[in-house]
Write a structure and sequence with these properties.
heterodimer; A: 248 residues; mainly alpha; 3-stranded antiparallel sheet; 3 strands; 52% helix; 6% strand; B: 202 residues; Rna Polymerase Sigma Factor, Chain: A; Arc Repressor Mutant, subunit A; 2 domains; disordered N terminus
Chain lengths: 248, 202
């Protein structure tokens, strides 16, 4: 190691920045090198000048001006804060990572749901859904039962729909609805056939395309279950599609 | 943004006035915050002055330091040592101020060393002889101004503020090896600059 390399080490040695082994190495070189001893002496002199700066004191007015300006701004900000800020701000600071994580999860879920709703019209038959599985038969009391949790486009028609009025008429009078009433095909077999006379009469009062009634109340078809498996194994979006409603 | 991952943790006791004022200031007491300013204004303003080299800039920077402190006070965890955290804000603010004002030195110490202008052998004159204190400080300030930003911050904190290499590394967010290298380089450049100044004066 030449003297130029030692100068960088001496610059640290002068202020005791070396550990003992490296300091001994520098000392042994200094014993044998007059040039480096002179360099150390000059460096100590310049360091003494640098440290003189630590003793410099500033005019107290400099501090006062700065402090007053700061406190003016602090008081202005303090007045603008809501009264609950001192209580809420420590909680916000302490739980900041949790807030950020929760917000990120919410945004991701919102994005996934929005994406599914957007895909729904094209993929309502489940053909292009990521994963489609048939669910075991689920007993339901009526077409509306399984539709309560479905998106708006998939829910059965509302209570004021003509189909419901037709069904109510048939129940009330124990006869099929007169001409002019439109019965939905699925509803007709459920609501009318179970309570009315044999299907011969019924056919004359209904639309020609109405299917023949069954002797017993048919088991409603099981709902179609669409599962969307995301990258996160903890997030699986399950979609129930009432096949009965789909035919209407 | 203020991060304090590398800062040394201390253990302020109940006798530490700053810890008491900090708790009250966090609770929204402006007079407690003013007490914190009184206790630490010298540290902030003098460090800013040494980093920026201009009193007006240093006052602006110190004001910004305390307003930033007020804004992020709730992030300061009880039990940590306060001065290193404040040093870190000060260094960050001064760096921002320096970049905003875009005031570049006409000739840096690096340029002088590279050109060989500062490689002349030092005179045997004692640097401290016949030199007033004001002159010495003026020369040192001039030398500091010409140092690269990171070396200046390292040498100000280590040699003038008297912090340990480990503390400086924590404040600057770098390793101790890097700080030692910056400090060594800065000391050699300042030695050359001061010798040259002295020679010119004589």
């Amino acid at each position: 190691m030449n003297c130029n390399s030692f100068e960088a080490l001496i610059a640290l040695y002068a202020e005791g920045d070396h550990d003992s082994s490296r300091a001994k190495n520098v000392e042994s070189h200094l014993k044998s090198c007059a040039s480096c001893r002179r360099f150390l002496s000059e460096l100590e002199a310049s360091q003494a000048m640098v440290k003189e700066l630590a003793g410099e004191s500033l005019d107290p007015a400099s501090f006062n001006v700065m402090r007053q300006r700061v406190m003016q701004e602090v008081n202005r900000r303090q007045a603008a804060r809501p009264p609950w800020w001192p209580f809420l701000s420590p909680a916000l600071a302490q739980w900041r990572p949790a807030w950020v994580a929760a917000l990120a999860v919410l945004v991701a879920l919102g994005f996934l749901l929005q994406w599914q709703l957007w895909r729904k019209p094209a993929g309502s038959d489940g053909a292009d859904s990521p994963t489609v599985a048939s669910a075991p038969p689920v007993r339901k009391d009526g077409p509306e039962a399984s539709g309560t949790n479905l998106p708006e486009k998939m829910t059965p028609k509302s209570e004021s729909s003509p189909e419901l009025a037709t069904r109510q008429f048939a129940k009330r009078h124990k006869t099929p609805a007169p001409r002019g009433f439109l019965l939905p095909t699925g509803v007709q077999s459920d609501a009318v056939a179970a309570e009315s006379e044999p299907p011969v009469e019924q056919g004359s009062n209904l639309e020609p395309e109405a299917p023949p009634p069954a002797d017993i109340t048919p088991e409603p078809p099981p709902p179609l279950v669409i599962k969307l498996i995301t990258d996160d194994p903890n997030i699986v979006i399950v979609w129930l599609v009432d096949q009965d409603v789909q035919h209407n | 943004m203020i991060e304090d991952a590398h800062l040394d943790s201390g253990a302020p006791t109940e006798n530490d006035p700053t810890a008491v004022w900090l708790r009250q200031a966090k609770a929204g007491d402006p007079s407690a915050f003013e007490q914190i300013i009184v206790l630490h204004q010298k540290q902030v303003l003098t460090t800013s002055l040494r980093l920026l080299g201009d009193l007006k800039d240093a006052q602006d920077a110190a004001q910004e330091v305390f307003l930033r402190l007020y804004k992020y006070l709730h992030r300061f965890q009880d039990g940590r040592e306060f001065p290193p955290w404040l040093y870190r804000i000060t260094v960050n603010v001064c760096r921002d101020v320096q970049r905003r004002r875009q005031r570049t030195a006409t000739l840096s110490l690096d340029d002088l060393v590279e050109s060989g202008e500062m490689r002349e052998p030092a005179s045997s004159t004692d640097l401290e002889a016949e030199l007033s204190l004001a002159e010495k400080r003026s020369f040192v300030k001039e030398a500091l101004k010409r140092l690269p930003e990171k070396e200046r911050a390292a040498v100000v904190l280590r040699d003038i503020e008297g912090l340990s290499t480990r503390e400086v590394a924590g404040i600057l967010g770098s390793s101790e090896v890097t700080v030692r290298s910056q400090v060594s380089s800065a000391r050699m450049k300042m030695k050359l600059f001061l010798e040259r100044r002295l020679k010119r004066r004589s």
